[in-house]
Write a structure and sequence with these properties.
By secondary structure, this protein is of the alpha/beta class. It has helices at 14-23, 43-52, 72-84, 103-110, 130-137, 155-167, 189-194, 217-232; strands at 6-11, 27-30, 56-60, 89-92, 117-120, 143-148, 177-180, 199-202. It has a single domain, classed as Copper homeostasis (CutC) domain (TIM Barrel, Alpha-Beta Barrel), CATH 3.20.20.380. Helix content is 36%, strand content 16%.
Amino acid sequence: MSKRAVLEVIALDPEDAVAAQAGGADRLELVTDMAADGLTPSVATFAGIRAAVDLDLRVMLRLADGFAAGDVARLVGLAGELRAAGAEEFVLGFLSADGGVDLTAVERVLSALDGCSWTFHRAIDRAADRDALRKALDGMPGLDTYLTAGAAGGVDAGLPTLLAEARRQGEPGYEQHILVGGGLRLDHVPRLLDAGISGFHIGGAARPGGWQGPVSVEAVAEWRSVLDAGADG
């Protein structure tokens, strides 16, 4: 029996969420302000989406463009508010000025998450040393996924790294799921599936009209169909 690949879609509002679910998404990443590559949505937005769909929701914890943590106390407060509203899964990732993981910031935010599942996002693609970052985060409570393109420039540039990291799955620091996103196209899917990667993250690819337009049921359904066909192949 084949394993169903996970399709995660970025949602900005309840309408996006409903369309993504109708198209066959498994999970949503909730953000606001894609001009800044996705920041923390309001509690009201989370609540509206939670009421609209029954998918798993991963909520971004990020205050500004870039990968510095910024106001960590505010992040902790927002995490607590979202937890109180029912959020159970999150997305975060902070780097220090030298390109290493900002463990202090990560640990402070995790203290508000009560062991919730979370994704370390594409900050890994800007890290000075990906392997060192993974090793530093090994054993962090709730960390189950890395969202990565393999390189800052996107999947075209990062494909060799993604394939190499897939071969290391199960090693210390490499036990988390790989969720591929960032310049991901349908033609990348066969090689990634063949490598054993089973997580795929799309944002703009779900919006034929661009970020000013809504998620398209048809676009998400096309990804669902390709992923399912590849997993069965």
